[in-house]
Each structure stands twice: as structure tokens, then as C-alpha cells.
Amino acid sequence: MPFVSSFTVPLSSRPLLRLQEIRAIEAVEVPLADPPLMERAGAAIARAVIAHVPPGGLVCVLCGPGNNGGDGFVAARRLLALGRRAVVIGRFDGGGSGGEAAAAREAFVASGGVMLAGPDALETPPAAIVDALFGIGLARPIGEPHASWIEWGLAQTAFKLAVDVPSGLDADTGRCTGPCFTADLTSTFLADKPGLHTLDGPDRAGKVVVDSLGIDPRRHDLGLGRLLGLDAFADHLQPRRKNTHKGSFGHVLVVGGAPRMSGAAFLAGHAALATGAGKVTLCALDPNILSFSPVHPELMVGNAIPERGVDVLVVGPGLGASDPARALLARLLPSPLPLVLDADGLNRLAVDAELQESLRSRPIPAILTPHPMEAARLLGTEVAAVQNDRIAAAQELARRYRAHVVLKGCGSIVADPDGTWAINPTGNPGMASAGMGDVLSGLLGSLLAQGWPVPLAARFGTFLHGAAADRLVAEGIGPIGLRASETVAAARQLVNEWSERNRKAL
Ligand SMILES: NC(=O)C1=CN([C@@H]2O[C@H](COP(=O)(O)OP(=O)(O)OC[C@H]3O[C@@H](n4cnc5c(N)ncnc54)[C@H](OP(=O)(O)O)[C@@H]3O)[C@@H](O)[C@H]2O)[C@@H](O)CC1
Ligand SMILES: [K+]
């Protein structure tokens, strides 16, 4: 039987709060909450365990020294009270961040709960492991004994649940700081956190469920970050009116295609056509490029920039680093048309102050689509520094170049010049293959040509491309061997399905 899994995309956008924003909510709500937030958090964990673990299975709760551990003690006490088998692995050393967690530990022990000094003391293998070692208070890489407990936990076949954040993962950046838990499910509190959705976060957190602990988020500043969901695009995802013509959907000019690199420009052009641009022209640097594509004869191909009639520029796919490439950039960057700049266009930009200035001065900010290496070049830093805090890097690029930035990678970041940002939850490792960036550029150009506002186009193009790859994987096409050109047809299918589903009265 062919391998087929179900395809879903996140439907609802939601706020992503960084540490300071979560701490600000805690500062207001903790003194007011009755029952206390820790009690509510522990109850949520107990409910999640019960939903996933049959009665009779042993639940092993790993408790750390702070309030994350406190949540774990409450959960363990509640599980016992509900007739479940639960033990805690933790230390009686009295350390930690004070009263509430210590009180939770005492209440657990007073209710007959058993605390073990390490996993060796377990008599039966656990059915579930609850990771309540460290949450948002993680201050440095995890050492002993907690590192060994994590290593032991990862070797178990049990269901694994992380409390708030997998221990060892930085909740702001998604970086594993050292030993790091890997969960099937992360139950995260008050609001969702960016680190669960970018870099190492998606590998470590498993499914993420947000529990507001009964706090109304509208009472608080929800910051500048969002996790993208399909609902963000509903207003612009509409079926087409009947009374339209190709001019209604814009003319995209793809500029690139240097000798031996024309495939990149064809991919971008193909993606633009297949997702709804009215017309696409390729201006290639390769003088020997075919005058038309036998595979996609609808594309107009040449070596010249059309004098008029173009609505959107996509510059960079296969552009190369030659002097003529630089001359094209110098000519096109000041254009008043919406612009997507990718690949070699970005590399040239990184070393050319004059081009940078003309990018910054554009009347309509461009969309830049760097991968981490290109982002590092643009920021004059190392890839590791970009990946250390992908949100901050994307924000800095957006500010410095006055552009909308899509920082690609696991959990692509979209950042705007005004400081707002989003994480894209779609996509998979099949997209780590040649030509994917060219397809994304083409999709973005296509959306701009069809009138999407620039920040929304940056978000939806990224979301759509990842979702197309996800659908293909769900159909058994990838992730291994997924080809960029295959994502084009899947994107076309999705955009039609979603638009039809959103049909509103004209
Ligand atoms: N506030 C509330 O009411 C609510 C909080 N909630 C819950 O609390 C969590 C936040 O709690 P938290 O602030 O106590 O931080 P937490 O993640 O437990 O760790 C801090 C402790 O660990 C220590 N430590 C740090 N790194 C270390 C390391 N590598 N190795 C060893 N020790 C290390 C650090 O001590 P340090 O040595 O750094 O002084 C401190 O003792 C949050 O994620 C959520 O689960 C929810 O219930 C909602 C309501
Ligand atoms: K944890």
C-alpha cells in the first residue's frame, strides 16, 4: 500500500510571545490568580497525560528546581489523586526559585507521592515521561544530574510530554543550548513561544498545545510576533470574478538566468504563472537561452528588459555575480515597482553600499528572501550568529535594508521594517533541495502581481510554498527526493482550493 498520511495546515494564527512579554503577563497575573497559575498548569499537564496514557501505566515526572518543576509536582499530585500511578524524579536539595515550587513539592510528598533520586530507582519502565525540568527560566546549558535524566528519558519508548518548553530549548530562539528533551507533545502556558516553532523547536517540541491557564490574553500586550495560520489570508484568498482578463493579474518580470543557471529563472517564472500571474517574462543574462521553454511555452523569454507593461520584478534567480548582473541590479533596484530580491541578487547587495542605498530608498520596500548564509553575508556576520537568534537577525535585516525579509530555514521568519514578525509553520525537510528558493521567489512575485499587499504576500507566499511541500509529503512524494518543480503544481492546487473555500458574495 502506498504511504499516505493526512495533510493539514494550521488554520488559526496566534501570538508568539518572547520571554520578556511572558514575564510581563506573569508579573500581573500571578498575584491575582486564584486558583494559582501553577495549580492550573499542573492540572493541564495531568489532563494531557490522562488523554494519552491508558490507566495502569506508570507516569514518571522529571522535576527541576524552579517553577517548571513546581508544575510537575502539581501534575504528579493530581494524577495520584485521580488514581493514576505517578512518581517524581527530583532532588530534595531545597534549591530553586522559592516558595511556590517548594510548596508544590511538599504537597506532593504529603499526599503520599514518591520522589526518587534518579531513573535507576524505577522498578518498571514508564508509560509516560513528563519533562518538568526547566522551562522559560533556563539560564545555561543543562548539567548533571539533569543531563543524564534527559538522556535516559530519550532512550525510553514512553509517551513524552514537555511542560511549557522542552528542557534545554531556548524558548525565544529555538536553540538547543546543550542536552535537550524531545517531546511528542508540548503543553505550553499563557501563550505560545517562538522557540517552539523555529530552528530546533519543531524537532524538539512535537505537537504544541497552548493553554492560556484561564488568562484572557486581550488584557495584555501581545507583542509583534505571530505564528501564521490560514485565517490570516482569508480576505485575499478569493475566487476570481468572471469579468477579468490577463491584465487583471499582473505581469511579472523575472531577471536572472546567467549562463548555466537559466533553470533557476525558469523555475521562478513557472511558479509565478502557475499561481496566477497574468503574464510572465524572463529576462535572462544567458545570450544562448532558448527563446521559449518547450515545457512552459506560455513563458516569454528574452535577453532584454521590456520597455513597459511590467508590474512586478523578481530579481536574482540564477543571476550570477558578473558585471552585467551588477548593472541590472543598479538599474532595477530604484524602480518604483514591487520587487522580490533573491539568491545572487542578495549576495551582490551584501558587498555593494551603493546598491544597498538604492534598496533602502525604494518607494515600496522590497521582499528579500535570504537563507541563513545569505543573511549572514548581508549582516556581515557568521551563519551561527544568524541561527542563534533567527528572529533578531530577520528583524535587523528588515530594519537595516528597509525591506520585508523572509529568513528561510526550519520555521521561516518573516520580518517587516516596522519590527513586526511572524513564523511560518508549514514546510518540511524535503524543501532542503535545489530550486526551492527560486520557486518561492516566483510565488511571491505572482502574489504581488495579483495585488497582495507586500507584507501579506511575503507571509502567504512562504506559507503556501511550505504547505505545498507538506501536501506532497502527505501523498508520499518526499520528503526524500522532493523536487522544487513538484511544489509548483501542488501550490496551484492549494491556492485554488483555499480560494474556493473562502468564496464570499461579490
Ligand atoms: N511564574 C509563574 O507563576 C508561572 C510559571 N510557570 C512555570 O514556571 C516556569 C518558569 O519557572 P522559573 O522562572 O522558576 O524557571 P524554570 O524554567 O523552572 O527554571 C529556573 C530554575 O532553574 C535554575 N536553572 C536555570 N537553568 C539551569 C540549569 N541549566 N541547570 C540547573 N539549574 C538551572 C534556576 O536557578 P539558578 O541556578 O539559575 O538561579 C531556577 O531555579 C515556566 O516555564 C512554567 O513551566 C507556569 O506554571 C505559569 C505560572
Ligand atoms: K520542561
From TrEMBL:
AMP binds at residues 408-412, 437. Keywords: ATP-binding, Isomerase, Lyase, Metal-binding, Multifunctional enzyme, NAD, NADP, Nucleotide-binding, Potassium. It catalyses: (6S)-NADPHX + ADP = AMP + phosphate + NADPH + H(+); (6R)-NADPHX = (6S)-NADPHX; (6R)-NADHX = (6S)-NADHX; (6S)-NADHX + ADP = AMP + phosphate + NADH + H(+). It comes from the Bacteria. Residues 17-221 form the YjeF N-terminal domain. Binds 1 potassium ion per subunit. CDD domains: YXKO-related (cd01171). Catalyzes the dehydration of the S-form of NAD(P)HX at the expense of ADP, which is converted to AMP. Together with NAD(P)HX epimerase, which catalyzes the epimerization of the S- and R-forms, the enzyme allows the repair of both epimers of NAD(P)HX, a damaged form of NAD(P)H that is a result of enzymatic or heat-dependent hydration. Homotetramer. Belongs to the NnrE/AIBP family. Belongs to the NnrD/CARKD family. This is Bifunctional NAD(P)H-hydrate repair enzyme. It comes from Tepidiphilus baoligensis.
